Amino acid sequence: MKKKILIIITIIIAIIIIGIGYFIVQDFKQEEKLKNELEETSNIVNVENNNNNTVNKSFGSYEVPENWVESKEHSTNSKFFYVLEGQEQEAQPNNISINSGTNKYAETEHEKFKTAILNQLSMQIAGKEDIEIKANGSDTNNGYIVYTFIIKETTDNITTTQYYIVGDYKYILIHETVFGESEETDDVAKSIVDSFKWKD
């Protein structure tokens, strides 16, 4: 009788130990799974953060995608051109240029600045029927006022978009030129506009 009781107790203890072991293994597997998922998420975030290069110039900083490069051939000490990597030697690559300038308007007079630019553009295209101009204003992601002027040459299918980020008696011009259509160039230009920060 005692022998049977001992066998039953031994079996019960063995079942309990196996059960505990099973749950420990399951917990360990779950922890490993969560750890791997966190590492994967972290890697994705790191890749996303590394998709852009921060460029520092005397007037400020901005981010440019890694697959876009500065065209040293066309850039000067005050104006910097960017093209899609591999298109540096093309005759007419889609491109984005960036330069700074000064004006006679305080930041609070930004509407006067917009009117002055619009008048200047209107004079430049006077008498040309194949050119359309659209203008709008908004804020960048960093809270700066930006005026956008889109000039479309319908005959040659060339679109130039001028983004003027307005400061106090100064501005940044991000000038996008697209031959035909290019959503990528549009997105890169907007990304540069939104990431721009004036130098303190």
Please tell me about this protein's structure:
With 200 residues, the protein is an alpha+beta fold. The chain folds into 2 domains: 1-50; 53-198, Protein Transport Mog1p, Chain A (3-Layer(aba) Sandwich). The protein is built from 3 helices and 10 strands, in the order αβββββαββββαβ. It has helices spanning 2-49, 110-124, 183-195; strands spanning 52-56, 60-65, 68-70, 79-84, 95-102, 131-139, 145-153, 158-166, 170-179, 197-198. A 7-stranded antiparallel beta sheet has the order 3-4-5-9-8-7-6, sandwiched between helices. The chain has a 3-stranded antiparallel beta sheet with strand order 1-2-10. Strand 1 and strand 2 form a beta hairpin. The radius of gyration is 30 Å and the shape is elongated. The N and C termini lie far apart (90 Å). The model is unreliable at 41-50 (pLDDT under 50).
Summarize this structure briefly.
The chain has 200 residues and is α+β, with helices and mostly antiparallel strands. The protein is built from 3 helices and 10 strands.
Keywords:
200 residues; alpha+beta; Protein Transport Mog1p, Chain A; 2 domains; seven-stranded antiparallel beta sheet; 34% strand
